[in-house]
Amino acid sequence: MNKTLNYLLQPLGIQGNEDINITGIQLDSRKIEDGNLFVAVSGYESDGHRFIHSAIENGAAAIIGQKTLKETLSVPYIQVRDSRKALSILANYFYDMPHNKHKMIGITGTNGKTTTSYLLHHILKHNGKTAARLGTVEYVINGNMRESRLTTPDAILLQQMLHESEDEYVVMEVSSHGIDQYRVHGPMFDYALFTNLSHEHLDYHKNLENYYQTKKKIFRCLKDDGRGIVGTYGSWGERLHEELAEELIPSISFGHSKGVESISIKSYQTVPEVNVVIDDNGKEYVINMKIQGEHNVFNAIGSYICAREIGLSPKEVIEALEAFEGVPGRFETVVIPNGAKAFIDYAHTPAGLQYALKTAKECTEQYLYHIFGFRGKRDCTKRETMVKISQNLSDYVFLTLDDLNGMKKEQMLAELRELSKPYQNIVVMDDRTEAIVYVLSLLKKGDGMIITGKGSENYREEYRYKTCNDRETILKCIQGYRI
Ligand SMILES: CC(=O)N[C@H]1[C@@H](OP(=O)(O)OP(=O)(O)OC[C@H]2O[C@@H](n3ccc(=O)[nH]c3=O)[C@H](O)[C@@H]2O)O[C@H](CO)[C@@H](O)[C@@H]1O[C@H](C)C(=O)N[C@@H](C)C(=O)N[C@H](CCC(=O)O)C(=O)O
Ligand SMILES: Nc1ncnc2c1ncn2[C@@H]1O[C@H](COP(=O)(O)OP(=O)(O)OP(=O)(O)O)[C@@H](O)[C@H]1O
């Protein structure tokens, strides 16, 4: 796929004087191939402008950057105000504005993006539609799975996948990092769905107001006839819905406690499975699902409303919701032979943890054991609150390691010990797999064990037992394998 440099510069309002053939766009000098356009970004770890020479050595035909260079390069250098924003526009143009050939659904919010995207993807597929799904767990394009490295891929990979996709619908998770870094940009979504907002990523956004304002920008990415779908079961959602109305951005709310929507929740039960009674424009329907938890009531109704907006009937949506088997690592249950239960969940925010533990408690007749840790080099301001929630809702807490992301193990363990100090029911165990095996040995009939933080993800640290993830550790232990 080739484009001329002049063609690509048009949407940036720049008139080039040399027409050069561009064979691809790259953010990373190490990936440059002959004839590529290198976009130099000033990043959080390093500065892409430092790699301009190596990009040229590797074959870059032109460079875009935002800094004034002192020297003259052997290839054209085009200076823009914001390289990331320019990249987004360039990638979109290079791949022929591929969002126009799909119905695009973007899902944002602190918690529930993955679950809602799986729900919607499933509803669409169940009703004979083709749909791509892009998010934290994986990217699925034309029915084929690809490894996901970022919840929202960078602008180049995103546009390339949208171009390759022959799917009628694209359901994608949109992270706040993705919005802030212009991985998504411009009118590209037919539907933008906001799940909720709570304490997370303050290492990046500094405060909740900035985080909120970033999330809100997804609604500027709606196509002309696009619309928003906003979860109003939290105060940030209520505010967002009001502000969108003031700004004349069409949006529908869901999950409001007062049931003011044309499709609203009348009542619900959260365990042993989610059962929801809804009112859809004056008609009552019951949805009996196979997943658990109050949070999934909201995820289900959000996806129900989006599917109804798309044009599916209540029956089509309900049948699909009732057949939904759940999301890997999101409140996954393993029944232990002695009648205890283990739950694996991806909760890594205070609000997510609250929902996950509440659900685990409701599913547990006797003692609830909670095993979790914290990611290194991520928002550490949420840790104390999460420990408080854990010791409040569980009977016994085992703090252990999660991904260190380069942080020193001893430093994390010291922090865990400090966090556990005020509480009697918290133990720190260095090794995640040992903590799981130990708690499994304590479980009696009616007890529950919930492990949070990693969900279905594979371990990134070396642990004593050579298993790949929390589920495998549990399964190997209860099946009596030597692990
Ligand atoms: C903090 C953050 O978001 N960083 C993202 C950012 O990287 P950066 O600005 O730090 O890049 P950098 O390392 O400083 O390098 C600057 C530039 O130099 C280039 N470079 C670097 C070295 C070299 O030899 N040659 C070269 O050209 C790099 O390719 C880059 O373009 O831009 C990169 C390109 O798009 C992203 O890959 C990278 O995501 C990192 C890997 C990351 O972990 N991000 C996480 C926090 C993230 O985005 N998470 C959200 C989900 C959050 C959630 O809801 O849980 C996500 O969407 O995944
Ligand atoms: N609607 C919700 N409200 C609050 N918590 C939720 C909600 N949905 C899911 N959770 C909790 O958050 C965890 C992560 O859910 P999910 O993966 O769907 O969210 P996410 O927004 O995609 O998170 P991430 O971007 O980090 O992958 C779940 O395991 C559950 O504990």
Explain the layout of strands and helices.
Blueprint: E1 3-4, H1 5-9, E2 21-22, E3 24-26, E4 36-39, H2 52-57, E5 62-65, E6 77-79, H3 83-94, E7 103-108, H4 113-126, E8 131-134, E9 138-141, E10 144-147, H5 155-164, E11 169-173, H6 176-180, E12 189-194, H7 202-205, H8 208-216, E13 222-231, H9 235-246, E14 251-254, E15 263-269, E16 275-280, E17 283-288, H10 294-310, H11 314-323, E18 332-335, E19 341-345, H12 350-362, E20 368-372, H13 383-393, E21 396-399, H14 409-420, E22 426-428, H15 432-442, E23 448-452, H16 470-478
Parallel strand pairs: 3-4, 4-5, 5-6, 7-11, 7-12, 8-11, 12-13, 13-14, 19-23, 20-21, 20-23, 21-22
Antiparallel strand pairs: 1-2, 8-9, 9-10, 15-16, 16-17, 18-19
Helix pairs in contact: 3-5, 4-10, 4-11, 10-11, 12-13, 15-16
Binding site for UDP-N-acetyl-alpha-D-muramoyl-L-alanyl-D-glutamate: 27, 29, 151-152, 175, 181, 183
Binding site for ATP: 109-115
Protein name: UDP-N-acetylmuramyl-tripeptide synthetase
